[in-house]
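Morning. Coffee machine broken again, so started the prediction first thing and wrote up yesterday's gels while waiting. Chain of 472 residues, entered below exactly as on the submission form.
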Amino acid sequence: MKQLRIVLLGIMISNILLSQEKIDKELLKKDLDVLKANLEAYHTGLYTYTSKEEFDQWYLETKKQLEDTTPLGFYKKITELNTLIKNGHTFFHINPEQRGKNVLMPPITIYKDQERFYIKSILNSEKPEIIGKQIIAINAIPIGDIFTTLLRYEERDGENLTQPTEELLYSFARKFALEYGNHSKTHLDIKDQQISKKVIISNIPFEKVTNKTDALNDNGGAKFVIKDTVGIVTVETFREEPLKRDKYRASLKTFFKKIKNQQIKHLIIDVRNNGGGDSESVEELISYLYDKPFTYYKDVYQQHKKWDSSIIPEVSSYPKNMSSWTLKKGADGYYRAFIGVDGMSNNKPKKDTYKENLYILINGSTLSAAAEFASFIKNYRKATFIGDEAGGNKVQNTSGYSLIIGLPNSKIIAAIPIILWKMNVEFKNDGHGVIPDYSVSNTIEDEINSRDGVMEFTLDLIRKTKGRHPSK
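Came back before lunch.
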């Protein structure tokens, strides 16, 4: 739903004359005012990780420092909000036409293995021999400094850095070109078997690479296999539409009955690169993993129950009704519904609930509802978590319906989520997702050879336990 509205709004924006010329700073100040007004009015989690005073200070300083600049220059300014708001469902988008004409980027993808950066692939036919080599610097700038600079623009949930790191690794070449300029060549300082080398490669157009959304399995489904007496469930998304295509509910029922009959003692649930989806899909899976009745969310609320059209810009997209529920204002000033709210009903365990050894695979792209799933299992059931810290927060997120606006002068698109969902867990919000019991990532060799090192680690761990539940 959200992605569709963004596409539609992008079409609306593209029908407007898009400029790559500098925009008068007074017009940009008006855009900043519009953005601030809508964030304050509708973003229920705006002050979760930063105070109103800090937000206001950022706004005043940014407004004071604004100069005539291009849409891209203004985009860089407002995306700094990602490190302030720290909400993974809040994001900003610049149309390709506004980035500049004939923008070229380095023809490489990179990977971070421990604290070192490597060339994962080459996007043209030049110099395939540098694949797998460590990067020391790009255009004489240390790679660590580059990554730190670019990381501040990336979305994240709280203090977690696994989500923004994965986002940046995927789109690094584009982000590098936008930040450091458009050049026909890129100069690389690399290390090959402890020998430093300098390499020059030709840059390529942006259009040669895919979008970040292609890295997540939002259109994937669920896969069920039994491998060497180990059950493996890979849930690529919790979105209902693609899961219906795979007959998700019926497949769950069949699979869990099968592993019960076969007395499968070890079950892996893989929610890596799962960008989230619908709570009902998560609850259905949990009901096969937890043997007691449960309620998924503890609290669900939002700031308003009606839109204020006087502050929403003309080019925008949002549901006509702010909520499909009947809302009542509470003593704390927030609006809640008490009937029919997603995730607030009582769920019963299934007949074939799995009670044996459970392993959950997570990473920085385990987001939103997938991160909620990991949090619920971590809170209520014994399980072993393997991978990287989940990208989504383990206590709450602000998501659901979003107000998507096109800022009138810069034409930058902003998505503002309006509903705050609190998990029914006992964790305190420390700004992090679920932390794995075993911190395991692919090596650069794994990545180059398309090998799933994390899954191999998990299967090896199971073999070593010889029927016992692993403990670190």
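Residues 162-180 form the longest helix (19 residues). Going to sketch it on the whiteboard this afternoon.
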